[in-house]
Write a structure and sequence with these properties.
Layout (H helix, E strand, L loop, with lengths): L5 H20 L16 H19 L5 H26 L4 H24 L2 H6 L5 H25 L1 H4 L10 H21 L3 H25 L5 H22 L18
Length: 266
């Protein structure tokens, strides 16, 4: 077994869980929604998604299979982003949720991309060198930064939906909705321009994880949750795993580095 980081192990376990969930439901796990109902062979595609997620997650935990598993998962997620999620931006370019849903997939694409860069073989370096190494990790981090900006904007665009989710024991719910939106925007900008990027990546992953723990876990634990609530919990946890991997990619960089590029942690 080859574990590159704690984030790697969490990400792999999350992919396994998503695969099992898809196979049990016979439908797409929440992170892959929404696929058009009229799509030909939709059910077969749902099972294929579940299988790829499960097999890739297991492969990421097995040293001999880590490289092909990371490659397959990265290609699969990137295609999913381009074919199924990007269309929302073209269909509704002025609606912020179009960018949010793309951002959700972009986070796990970024996580898979980092793992692919870590586990790349000589074959990958020969044929796909543009997507691995320092260059590949920088692109993954930029993709993550763009996703964070989309999340931040959604907090402003949908403050009426975000504020009620703030735990009841916290005062000033609207303030926290705007505050967390600002932190996402700041973290996204930091990732894109390379200013305090390691700190920003770690704090943004922590913030997503805190949403999972403080918002969605209590709702799920209370029982009688809707399909939407359950889906939001799964998505939030998956985003935490993806953000964790991206944050781990900065391990060799000082916490307060400014526009410094160092070789990614392996």
């Amino acid at each position: 077994m080859r574990i590159a980081s704690v984030g790697h192990a969490v990400f792999a376990a999350t992919m396994i869980a998503l695969g099992i969930l898809g196979l049990i439901k016979g439908d797409f796990a929440p992170i892959w929604q929404s696929v058009p109902e009229g799509l030909p062979a939709r059910e077969a595609l749902a099972y294929l998604c579940a299988f790829i997620s499960l097999a890739s997650g297991i492969g990421l935990l097995w040293q001999r299979a880590a490289a092909p598993a990371a490659r397959a998962l990265f290609v699969y997620l990137l295609l999913w982003l381009l074919l199924f999620k990007a269309r929302y931006i073209f269909l509704a370019p002025t609606v912020e949720v179009s960018y949010q849903t793309c951002g959700e997939t972009a986070v796990i694409v970024a996580g898979a991309w980092v793992l692919y860069a870590w586990f790349a073989t000589d074959w990958d370096r020969r044929w796909l060198g543009f997507a691995i190494g320092d260059k590949g990790v920088r692109i993954a981090r930029a993709l993550y930064g763009l996703a964070l900006i989309a999340f931040g904007l959604s907090h402003f665009a949908y403050v009426n939906l975000t504020a009620p989710l703030v735990p009841g024991w916290l005062p000033a719910h609207v303030f926290w909705a705007y505050f967390t939106g600002c932190t996402f925007l700041a973290a996204g900008a930091a990732a894109l321009i390379g200013v305090y990027a390691r700190l920003a990546a770690a704090l943004s992953a922590l913030q997503i994880g805190m949403f999972t723990l403080l918002v969605w876990v209590p709702i799920v634990a209370a029982g009688h949750v809707s399909a939407q609530h359950w889906g939001e919990f799964v998505v939030s946890w998956t985003l935490t795993a993806g953000g964790w991997v991206v944050a781990d990619s900065y391990r060799s960089m000082p916490w307060l580095a400014v526009n410094k590029r160092r070789k990614q942690a392996v």
